[in-house]
Amino acid sequence: MPEGDTLARTAAGLRPYLVGRAVTAARAAAPGPQIARVVGTTITAVDSVGKNLLIRFDNGLEVRTHLRMNGSWHRYRPGEAWRRPAARARLVLEVPGAVAVCFDAPVVELFEQRAEGLHPSLSALGPDLLDPAFDADEAFRRLRDPSRASMSIAEALLDQRALAGIGNIWKNETLFAERVSPFVPVSSLDDETIRRLIATARRLLVASAARARPARNAVYGRAGRPCPRCGTVIEAAQHGGELPRTTYWCPRCQGRRV
User: Does 32 fall in a domain?
Assistant: First the structure.
């Protein structure tokens, strides 16, 4: 699933070609939003918020896409061949000089910008790790909420209602960087460790968002390979509640699973 850094790069890639340009054509796969309502409007912003991409228009509407596991945004020149079949396009926006296509996204919504604060998903998000005004104290407060006390720290870091933008890659990389076991409950960690995890997660996402290409991971996807820090074989296991994810960790640097 694309994480906050990927969405930030996607927004940055689309922004120069879309913002300030009038929408000349728009279509969405059925069932989908009444996207024709944005034809003739001017795109005013392309932003990422957590794992969401938001496109705003000067008539007060905005589009939200969530890519989940398989979605992606592409940008083409008019008439250029698409790299995926047209049947997989969920949303197409045409402006002078560019065509933006969202493929395979399970979530494509159109709503009024003034309702963003009431949106069931957007309004519930915790502080966005890539927001220049990121509120680390609020993220700490949310992670320390009693409802998360018994959660493993790995699950808590993935909870977008606590802090937005981190996914499975940066969950694993953050915990490895701070030598914290993914399986310990939040309640067992002291305040200093929680704050270090928040700061490291933000540092890693900000650095990744600024890169043209992803950096090599220390533990994610490296099960059976030596730990880059101590040489111990990295382990992996399915971990989590309703939507378990693969967790990678070094049993020496971070401790064995209990």
Answer: yes
